Amino acid sequence: MTVPRTPDELVPALAEVLGGTVTDLRRLSAGASRETWTFEADGRRLVLRRDPPGAPRPAEMAREAECLRAAARAGLPVPPLLRAGDGTDAIGTPYLVMEHVAGESLPGRLLRDERWAAAREGMARELGRVLARIHAIDPREVPSLPTVTDPLADLRATYDGFGETRPGLEVAFRWLAAHRPPAVPPTVVHGDFRNGNLLVAPDGLAAVLDWELAHLGDPREDLGWVCTRAWRFGAQAEVGGFGSREELLAGYAEVAGAAPDTDAVRWWEVYGCVHWAVICRIQAERHLGGTERSMELAVLGRRAVEAEYDALLALGLVSGVPAVPTVARPTAERPPAECPTVDELLEAVRGFLADELVVGDDRSRYLARVARNALGIVARELASDPSEHRAALAAAGCADDAELGGGLRSGALDPADGPVAAAVRSAVLTRLAVANPRYA
Hints:
Protein name: Aminoglycoside phosphotransferase (APT) family kinase protein
Keywords: Kinase, Transferase
GO molecular function: kinase activity
InterPro entries: ACAD10_11_N, AGP_Transferase, Aminoglycoside_PTrfase, DUF6285, Kinase-like_dom_sf
Mean pLDDT: 91
Organism: Actinomycetospora succinea
Oligomer: single chain
């Protein structure tokens, strides 16, 4: 069966599955892991969420459908689910069809536009209340959810599978292993509860989206994740840029009867930084490994260093506004290899221009900005001077980042030692200056 890829191919496929007339189909820009389309069907505005052609995950899609149904039964704000498929029908890949819910999900607008000012008031507390209700869902309502018993070990194993060494993440892993909070009974965990996966109306939260990472585990994971710096999108407030941790936990306590220990939530926040770094690398590997050729996924690999920086910031190992090393001058010596490489980034941009670009298309406009970012990374890396970082490594007694990271993992190097700490900071900040110099 041929999987529909273009709007012209997808319109008749949707009409066949839904049994109606489909018009105004367009793909939304958001979503690196799954495609999101909006369309009209017999006068109703609907949303299609499907796996990319060539990368089907039917079990995961079925789990998400199960979560949406359970959340709706619990009275949580979620898009009404109309249909779910495993990809064996005309859509050609696993999918969900949901009713359209009015609202905004783009964090830049939610955090800065005056239209959403009223929604921002009290949002952190409301998110706490919603999370408490998610964690109260009876696990028997979602029997297909996997149970995560040792998330830190799972995360370490995934990270190790890439065969790469990031000194900042090694420091974070050491801290996480040494400061594990006491275990609590497992609950339903959303797994990706954050600004960007929330649909917000002018008067408040309208829907919780993207349940694909839901599982049974420690409920404090969701609380730490929504506090992770990556989801503040440049704003200062700790909970998705909306408000404070105190507001979040107060809202949680309103529903759950008590708030989790703040130190435990902080542990999960540091874990969230490391988790996001590993997710970025996972997404890049989908492109690099040939599973799904995508410039957007490739460029995500370079965002891992942002999360690495956030982990050091959360641990107090870099200042809030550090002097990030800037690119200096062309040199014959190349900087430490980063993934994806310069050549792989250029090949991903070439693939976008040749295979993905659609003139006038909203998603293509978004991807054009991603391409511009990719070319900026290439230009900064080719112009960078690694000599200062080499000097920092030498002061710590290391030849390269791999030796530094290996020493941190084995315990041969102490991150509290001045030269070692300086080399870790240099390793992260030097790569951050190439990937996104404005991030810090």
